[in-house]
Amino acid sequence: MDALTEPAVCRCVAELVARLHWGSVSLQAPPGAALLLAPLLLAVARRGVFVSVAPDADRAADGAVLPTDSLAAVANGRGRPLLVLALRGTSERRLATLLRPLGGALVYDVLSGAVYRTARYADVGPPVQRLGTCQRRGVRLSDDIGRPSPIGWQDLRLVNTTIKAFGYESFKHLSVFSSRLTLSLADMMELLEDTMFFKLTYLDYLQASYSEALFAIKNGTAHTAVDYFMATPDRAQYLSFPFHLGKVHICLFFGQPPAVSHASLLGGPFAEAAGRLLLAGLTLLLVLLSYLATRGSSGGGPAGSWLQAVALFSNQGLAARPSRLWQLVAAGVGCLAALLTAQLYTAGLLSRVTTEVTELPFKQLDDVLDAPGWQWGFLGNSGVQELLVHSSSPGVNFAGTTASIMNKPYMKSRESFIEKGEQEQFAFFYDHLAVASQCNWETCPKLCYHPQELASFGYSVPFRRDDPAVPAWYVAFLRLWETGIWSRLKRRHMARLEEVQLACDVEPRPRQYYAPLELEQCVAAFTLLLGGAALACGFLASELVIARLTAK
Q1: Which CATH number belongs to the domain containing residue 44 in this structure?
Q2: Is Amino-acid biosynthesis included in the keywords of this UniProt record (predicted)?
């Protein structure tokens, strides 16, 4: 028992805790080991240590079972159980029987220097496993120690730690009723405060901006800010976002454009360049085959003229002699091509007449710079200005308009942006979560955003990059996200955002409202019919002129 007072034992215990990455420890030391506590507390600095009294070493050597109160003190302790015992001649089998109720406990025998670990219900392997030795020269743990015990909330405790944070009431121009996601984050931090045993203190700040809050976290005045912040690359240089709780998309919002129904002359399957070439080729093939198949023979015959050949072929199929059968085949192919072309065009025309589509005012985001009659802007202190200045990708090229962006007047209220976007030709850049939070079970802003995004970032609660508690925050956020607790916290204050459709629907869809076809929508069909009639009259006139000149 004299070995328990040596500082080497303290160093071994501290190194064990550091090697296994424990955040807190429930330590059971034998009676009379008061001299062990002071150097041990110094060795495991920045970690929580909870001390209780272990049974006498003589009773442990005799195979006695730990008392019920001692078992409860260790099993229900606020940290990983660590027992420092002097085991005299106790075998691993007797040790397994002794420590069966303490799943996942670490046992250090100060007499032999052996380090044991008891299995938990989720572990695979023997009930007691020897990890290695811990002597005066240091810790020697085996590389093959099996699967580690699952990390529990007791490993994430931030004992005797005060977290100074900015609350949602500290920020100016922030509506509590509209920032439902911020309220969900506040509930999450309160839940973690009760689970991780830290004390959350909100700073007494009023009318603070987001930039001031991030600067306070950077210089150490505050630990965090209870609000969602985008993990942009410039912020990642001095801030740490432990776990992304969701995605934020910076989009271009504008008023919902009305759906229109168009029936152009070359619509449907002939809208593209390839379709137009196909239509022109089929038309020329039809004209050529019809002319070759129905032109009159030089020796006379039943097909003396173009009009007579068409009439004979339509009524009796006598447009050609057996020796000129290829003319009949050519005429059939021409008629089939004409029929398919007419059917295809009719189907495309009807599909466009009976459907509607939303036409965007901007084909790409940078078209907003030169759009006639349109104004655009962005919300101050939202980070959009830096994104616009450094954006140079195709379709989002704002880098050449730095002067106009820097001098762009912007509003400081999200509600004023939404109201102006609904009533005027005004477009603005903002994140989709902030606009979607304005929706409730009855109404939603009459806005939609362009399918092309300016940027996309993850959001989370920020901390300093060199904060030693960042790994614990990461595991805590991950645990809340995996177990569905974070989703339930969001549903307390927010509507189901999955049902909110703010993206502009640019796909063709059936007409939602009944309306008779107007004359303007039939112009394409009339143009095609008149063009075909004019072409037929032209062929007939040319045949008559050729026949008159030949007769003379």
Answers
A1: 3.40.50
A2: no
